[in-house]
Amino acid sequence: RASASMQPVPPEGQNDLPVHGVTNTVVGVLGGGQLGKMLCQAASQMGVKMVILDPLENCPASSLCHEHVVGSFNDGDTVSGFAKRCGVLTVEIEHVDAVTLAKLEKQGIDCEPKASTIMIIQDKYRQKTHFSNFGIPLPDFMEVDTLSSIEKAGEMFGYPLMVKSKRLAYDGRGNAVAHDEKELSSVVASLGGFEHGLYVERWTSFVKELSVIVARSRDGSTICYPVVETIHKDNICHVVEAPAEVPDKIKKLATNVAEKAIKSLEGAGVFAVELFLTQDDQVLLNEVAPRPHNSGHHTIEACYTSQYEQHLRAILGLPLGDPSMKAPAAIMYNILGEDEGEAGFTLAHQLIERALGIPGASVHWYAKPEMRKQRKMGHITIVGPSKFSVKARLDKLLQRDVYDPEKV
Ligand code: ATP
Ligand code: MG
Ligand code: MG
């Protein structure tokens, strides 16, 4: 691996040489966080060359990629220069310069998924409008740009009212809940005011949150991973149970909603569809990620083809792999920073040490340069012969008696 400057390099994948291994195409990834790192791990197994664009010198993917270009995925010139190195360009984060991606596509650069998809998804209000126009069920929502418009939304949707930033949201940053009309102005202020773009959603008192990873090949065919349940803590994904414990008809419904949503978007790759299951058995779309996702980490150990390998297969035009589970059950636990600095590292290390003694447990440590509270630092996946056994093993790992999702 070498950190590279920005001089153009001939795209190695676009020559007439015979193919050695699975492909000659060089994959460029915007972003080098944990998702980029796990994409590089899958690429390494198949001998696929990965180049990464990330501003952080020691980002998680930097130690595993073929080449790391240190630079911003939000700067048009940097992204354009980077694209010239790649046979196909993809993302591990949606908050990238999508306008430049659209220009690059016009110049013949192969972006997967397409710039249009990134543009729709990176603005959550635009995303909701898009899916609503396409007939996908979702919670009621409304754009708000003044105090009187948000008060009106509160009257229409009632309280609690979910207020969301349109852009740059992740891990619940960008979401705030107003419990009554009096809280509206402070909630709006906490999200930086109306200037940056806000919208509201009707509160959904879901019984479960579900997720479906959908892979789409370059020819448009789709394949879905088994439905999983995601359990959030303070708006951050914390535990994923695979498969989800819901009736078959709910699995079918969730898969249908997810597949239909992804069919409305352009381009190849894996997509995650976050869903709410309501008391009256409706499945509503929360949001879509145009890339591998936290709710698919377990696929590395639990499925025949991981979401990371699947993403590479999809964007490279290779046949899609089998998404089904090779173990009866899996559970994924996110290692979130519990404290800043050394104190946080010590706590995480204690957890990892215990995990190494649990049967079927695999430890993933992202090697992020800084430990911060609530930051995703790594994850642990436990696979086993039954749902009961993986839950019991997680209890042991977390040193608690009875599995209780509320307490994770
Ligand atoms: P991510 O890290 O998944 O990108 P995000 O910051 O984009 O998260 P959302 O997915 O919009 O945030 O919301 C985070 C969590 O907040 C959801 O998983 C869910 O638990 C809760 N939530 C979101 N919208 C609603 C809603 N309308 N009603 C009730 N709870 C909600
Ligand atoms: Mg999101
Ligand atoms: Mg989300």
Total helical elements = 12
- Radius of gyration, rounded? 21 Å
End-to-end distance: 38 Å
Order of helices and strands: EEHEEHEHHHEHEEHEEEEEHEEHHEHEEH
Sheet having the most strands: 9 strands, antiparallel
Mean pLDDT: 93
- Basic shape: globular
Query: How large a portion of the residues is in β-strands, by DSSP E?
Result: 15-25%
Helix content range: 25-40%
Walkthrough of the structure:
By secondary structure, the protein is of the alpha+beta class. It contains twelve helices and 18 strands. Helices cover 30% and strands 25% of the residues. A hairpin with a 5-residue loop joins β14 and β15 (283-289). α3 (98-106) runs antiparallel to α4 (115-122). The protein is globular, with a radius of gyration of 21 Å. Mean pLDDT is 93; it is low at 1-10. The structure holds adenosine-5'-triphosphate and magnesium ion (MG) (2 copies). Residues 274, 286-287 line the site of one magnesium ion.
SSE arrangement:
Elements: E1 2-4, E2 27-30, H1 34-46, E3 50-54, E4 67-70, H2 76-83, E5 88-91, H3 98-106, H4 115-122, H5 124-133, E6 141-144, H6 147-157, E7 161-165, E8 175-178, H7 184-190, E9 198-202, E10 208-216, E11 222-224, E12 228-233, E13 236-242, H8 248-263, E14 269-277, E15 283-289, H9 299-302, H10 307-316, E16 329-336, H11 341-355, E17 361-365, E18 376-384, H12 387-397
Parallel strand pairs: 1-4, 2-3, 2-5, 3-4
Antiparallel strand pairs: 6-9, 7-8, 7-9, 10-11, 10-12, 10-14, 12-13, 13-16, 14-15, 16-18, 17-18
Helix pairs in contact: 1-10, 2-3, 3-4
The structure holds adenosine-5'-triphosphate (ATP) and magnesium ion (2 copies).
Adenosine-5'-triphosphate binds next to strand 7 and strand 15.
